Amino acid sequence: TKTTLTNQSNKSTNSISNSGTLSPSLNSPRLQRSHSRLAEFNSLRTSTSITISPPKSTTNSSSSLTTSTTTLAPFESASQLVSYINHSLNKETMFHEILPLTEEVFNLQLPKITQDGLFFCKYLNVVLPGTIDERVLNMNPENQNQIIQNLNLFLNSAKAIGCKVADLSPEELQSASTDTIAQLLWEVTRVGVLAKVSYEFHPELVALRESSEDLQSLLTLPPEKILLRWINTQLAKAKYPRKLTNLTDDLKNSEAIVELLSVIAPEIVTLQVKQSILQERDPLRRAEQMLLVCERLEANKFVEAKDIVSGSKSVIMFMGNLFHLRTFLERPVETQQNTRNSVNLDFEGSREERAFRMWLNSIGLPQYVNSLSEDLRDGLVLLHMLDKIVPKTVDWNKVVRKPTNRFHKLENCNYAYELGLKLGFSLVSMSGQDFTEGNLKFLLSLIWQARFLQIQMLLKQINEKAGLSKDM
Is the CB of residue 149 less than 8 Å from the CB of residue 44? Predict the structure, then answer.
């Protein structure tokens, strides 16, 4: 058994090292050993010799399927999802026999289409390119274990980019209902669309910086806030009298969207077209006319007129897609490379930071982490991380759950520092104040040690399951 595990571990480690999902730069022998052991754990987890089921969540868990606050996002429109899937996969030859999907096929055959995991992985890679290294996929799965490996790769990759997938295991996903699969595909679509509202896809968004704002602060804003700022910037050009505060209720009457279209697509939404739409008094009809205009831009995705009028959250995806198609922002005078240097966007140097951020998002925390230096300052993410790795470590009665000032944040960060010491972390020359200030060097150190502890605990569990020696 030990020989079998070793051979499988070596084979899978080589595959995982090529994966595009979590690939931090290995700047030190210590990190190399850590990632080597992580690769070995992932290999063992999907090994044909042993199967480790994830521990069941307790009633306190924030990611339980039955009691959770972290559940799959509501699924709103089968027709819109089917349309976007057909549009996204129209060049994928692997599925030419089933595409384009009809709503009838979607409703009746979706579990069968997705059961081997390939459809999930391919779709995720089309929605957000480069998320999965397809070289590690089992393109022609010959047995149940290879299918589970595909599904496991999809679930881990989806969680790493911020999808809320509840506590679905690969086995549960394989036998999931059409509704559950549709919800998951919708969640992947939502995250993929909003992920493109970023500097990586649109360097010109640096033009949205306010006069007194640090550029790094702008680029670490959540996509929804960047979208809101972009819309208000464009509406100001049209001299629109109101400033939007949200992306749902403020767009119900379609007036702001029509004004936005007149700025970013003036050749289509002329003054005459704009006035014609705005003169329509019925909000539903106005929304229908607006979407007809968007159809010429190929931007009529994710919503129907009723969704606009009702203030559905799918409107956020609609606006994200519109942003991706036409930002209508002037590119900055400085070059892209100068911008990267000025705001710490050296992608080679930040690979480690992004890998740890993706790891945090993959372990089922209640909050999605966009930036380590910004989102961890209140200590809550750090405390949830420690409690996730070692359950019941945190006494939540000592935690300020809604920190409203710096003192509350410092109190939480000091508690996280104290728990780190109790868990045996080396936290020399740092304190809770460093976490509150967003000191990236010390935050990376804490997260690295937490991740290493998780690997040690899981390897111990695997050894006990397999009946191996503790020295392995």
Answer: no
Task: List, in order, residues 6 or more apart from 159 with CB less than 8 Å away.
Answer: 165, 361, 362, 363, 364
Q: 366: closest CA among 73, 62, 56, 60?
A: 62
Distances from the Cα of 388 to the Cα of 93, 122, 161, 238, 384, angstroms = 41, 30, 19, 49, 6
Instruction: Identify whether the C-beta of residue 196 lies closer than 8 Å to the C-beta of residue 320.
Output: yes
pLDDT band with cut points at 50, 70 and 90 for residue 76: low
Alpha carbons 11 and 227: distance in angstroms, whole number:
44
Structure tokens at 276: 């014609």
Owner of token pair 């992985």: 121
- Model pTM score: 0.66
Show the tokens assigned to 333.
């005078």
* Burial class of 381 by CB neighbour count within 10 A (0 to 12, 13 to 18, 19+): buried
The pair of three-digit structure tokens given for residue 458, joined into one six-digit string: 């899981």
Place of tokens 């909000």: 283
CA distances from 81 to 95, 101, 168, 182, 410 (A): 17, 10, 21, 8, 44
| 3-state SS, one letter per residue, for 208-226 | HCCCCCCHHHHHCCCHHHH
* DSSP per-residue string spanning 244-300: ---SSGGGTTSHHHHHHHHHH-TTTS-HHHHHHHHT---HHHHHHHHHHHHHHTT--
Cα–Cα distance measured from residue 93 to residue 302, given in angstroms and rounded to the nearest whole number: 24
Q: How far apart are CA 386 and CA 454, in angstroms?
A: 10
CB atoms inside a 10 Å sphere around CB 402: 8
Q: Residue 455 is encoded by which pair of tokens?
A: 């690997």
pLDDT confidence of residue 43: 45
Quick: pLDDT tens for 308-336.
999 988 899 999 999 999 998 876 655 44
User: Under a CB-based contact definition with an 8 Å cutoff, are residues 342 and 248 in contact?
Assistant: no
Task: Print burial letters for 231-265: b (CB count within 10 Å at least 16), e (below 16).
Answer: bbebbeebebeeebeebbebbbebbbbbbbbbbbb
Cα dihedral 412, 414, 420, 422 sign:
negative
Other Cβ atoms within 10 Å of 435 Cβ, number: 26
Q: Can you read off the two tokens belonging to residue 296?
A: 């010429």
